[in-house]
Specification:
alpha/beta, 5-stranded antiparallel beta sheet, 11 strands
């Protein structure tokens, strides 16, 4: 599907996430096109993090369809097929997500080393470029336990962006960040988005956020567009 000359990169159809003791979402439908920057405003304990993870097929209790690049992530019946489909989905964790025995540089380089044919020189160039853009060049050879929460989030963002994803999933990036820092992070994401043309879904607790092309809120176990 194409809209305004932009390709559909992710389609969610009748998504439901239900645990024995709790139904988090039911009947969710969502289209994400290239260059969309979708912002989902969340409340406390409303399932936003679970929703983001479900889009990667990481939540077993998910039903419906999650179509990414022509394949339903919930119907892929082998580990290798799921891993291959996820190579072009960048996930930015709210916290943690880094491998403790690797320094920052090698955490960022990991998906490039395993999932691309880039040379070490090409990987280094790409990492140094994105580190400069995100103002973390001085962090590249630190260990994850030497980072504060904000630095960890930015490193997670670098690791997701460096893969040149087709879609970027961000779970509350702004937690603990000052406004100038979060403004810079968003500027970097939008700059890369113009260059690479990927879709973004970002959850946030901040109801004053005014960037993004489409805004939703979570209500009654579903997403509702805010106009």
């Amino acid at each position: 599907m194409v809209k305004n000359n932009k390709e559909l990169v992710l389609a969610v159809r009748n998504l439901q996430i239900a645990f024995p003791e709790n139904v988090l979402f039911k009947g969710v439908n969502l289209d994400v096109f290239e260059d969309d920057f979708i912002v989902i405003t969340t409340g406390v304990m409303d399932g936003a993090t679970t929703f983001i993870k479900s889009l990667l097929g990481l939540i077993d209790e998910t039903e419906g369809e999650i179509i990414f690049q022509g394949e339903d992530l919930l119907r892929l019946n082998s580990h290798s097929k799921r891993q291959n489909a996820r190579k072009k989905i960048g996930l930015v964790y709210e916290a943690a997500g880094l491998i403790s025995i690797m320094d920052v540089y090698h955490n960022i380089s990991l998906p490039l080393s395993y999932h691309t044919n880039l040379s070490e020189k090409e990987i280094q160039k790409r990492i140094e470029s994105i580190a400069e853009d995100l103002l973390i060049s001085d962090l590249l050879y630190l260990e994850p336990n030497e980072l504060n929460d904000t630095q960890t989030r930015v490193v997670n963002l670098a690791r997701a962006l460096v893969t040149e994803p087709r879609i970027l999933l961000i779970d509350e990036l702004e937690g603990g960040m000052t406004k100038p820092v979060i403004d810079h992070m968003i500027d970097v994401i939008q700059t890369y988005q113009k260059q690479i043309h990927f879709g973004v879904i970002m959850t946030t607790l901040d109801r004053t956020i005014d960037f993004g092309t489409i805004h939703y809120k979570i209500k009654d176990q579903n997403l509702f567009e805010v106009t």
